[in-house]
Please model this.
Amino acid sequence: MRFIKAHCSGNDFIFIQGKSVKNTAEFVRKLSHRRFGVGADGVVFYEPNRAKVLARYFNCDGSEADFCGDALLTLGMLVQNGVNTVSTRKGEFKFEKTHNLVRLEMPEPASLKQMEVEGITGYFLECGVPHFVTFADDLEKLDVQNLGQKIRYNELFGETGTNVDFVKVIKKDTLKLRVYERGVEGETLGCGTGSVASAFVAHKLRLTSEKVKVLTPGGETTVELGSKIFLCGTPIIVFEGELKEPIESSTERR
Model:
């Protein structure tokens, strides 16, 4: 089975052309393991179909997500032959690429509401997947793992939980972001939907402009707000490979 390993801002993925395999959740968990597998935050199964590419995204814990901004942005770099639309469980979205830059249409944020969780004031919204956005002055000293986990599993978000975005406004056109990702169950180096959610909330609060650069530990993306919303980034293909041996099982991802 051939695969491609790639990332966008350090948010890394394994791409496999074809339909999902049998026992997909178990396969994804093993393949995503950073010691016993290839290692990744998630796995994308994709099938080009004329001008569209059909995509299914699985978190490294084996759960399937409706959408993943960085994964689909990276997929836009991989597909060829006039493909300009990605079809997901959230619908169809256009993308365009120029050299090493990909610009992806994103789901319209919805259900925005202010709330307090674990004593922290923030904003919940759906942005392809659920996000809780909160602002912090000192991101470097923040315990993203523990605090993010408490918020992610808070009963206010039900069984599905939420991703958690810790944001600092640097200036009118720049945000800094750290994210605890649901399905990874830890901090990731980047997050496309988190970048959009954070930029959207910051703009609603009149803290930033419509076009915002989002800095994450793994790099940067740009969010463009308007009648439609776009995520822009420069995905990197790391290597290609082939799975030849059964992937050993393990209970620990890393």
In short: The first strand starts at residue 2 and ends at 8.
